[in-house]
User: Which sequence fits this backbone?
């Protein structure tokens, strides 16, 4: 059994929806990529590059699902991802295990994916509850005497006037504490943050991973984007 969905031309696949859907299939996902998405994307390139291009075609937005694959293309193969042409000639099928892509332990795939989906749903809810604010989350690379460690953080900036933002310090501190508590209460999320930290290390010593509106919503569909567009029309 697989969680199946189709890539629509001009739209990204919703990473949160994929993770939620994969809970009931032990992580197994199949995405149908129609010919019209990009007729030339997979022709005349190496197999490993085909798979990487397929993931980029599906998850062009900042996606937690491809945090490792974007830095190490061989990760897709190691995680069991496969791209095959459909028998009817109508595009390709991209198959993968969401838990393996996320570098989760794999002991209880459904429970692990549920933890990740829960964290992402919570982040999305924070954005939806503050449409007048620019809300984002991040996992930073920090260092102390013991070495590198992942540092989850949050940012909430209140939109006050045209192109002007003010940091909502008290709100940010409260949400940051909630974020860190959620992660510390889950061995899966602790592992996930460490794996994201490792992926960021492939970019550079000061890299980080962001969760912004584009991680959860299509362009102009996020609550803050809608708020800004509504403000301009008044």
Assistant:
């Amino acid at each position: 059994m697989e969680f199946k969905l189709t890539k629509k031309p001009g739209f990204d696949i919703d990473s949160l929806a994929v993770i939620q859907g994969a809970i009931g299939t032990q992580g197994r996902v199949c995405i149908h990529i129609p010919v019209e998405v990009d007729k030339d994307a997979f022709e005349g390139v190496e197999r490993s590059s085909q798979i990487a291009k397929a993931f980029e075609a599906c998850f062009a937005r900042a996606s937690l699902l491809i945090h490792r694959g974007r830095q190490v293309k061989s990760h897709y193969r190691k995680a069991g991802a496969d791209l095959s042409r459909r028998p009817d000639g109508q595009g390709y099928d991209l198959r993968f295990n969401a838990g393996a892509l996320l570098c989760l332990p794999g002991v209880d795939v459904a429970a692990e994916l549920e933890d990740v989906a829960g964290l992402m749903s919570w982040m999305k809810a924070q954005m939806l509850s503050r449409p007048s604010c620019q809300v984002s989350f991040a996992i930073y690379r920090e260092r102390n005497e013991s070495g590198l460690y992942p540092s989850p953080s949050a940012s909430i900036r209140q939109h006050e006037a045209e192109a002007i933002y003010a940091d909502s310090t008290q709100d940010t501190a409260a949400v940051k504490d909630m974020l860190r508590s959620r992660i510390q209460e889950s061995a899966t999320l602790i592992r996930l943050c460490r794996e994201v930290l490792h992926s960021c290390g492939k970019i550079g010593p000061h890299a980080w991973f962001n969760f912004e509106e584009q991680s959860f919503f299509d362009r102009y569909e996020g609550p803050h984007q809608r708020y800004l567009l509504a403000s301009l029309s008044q």
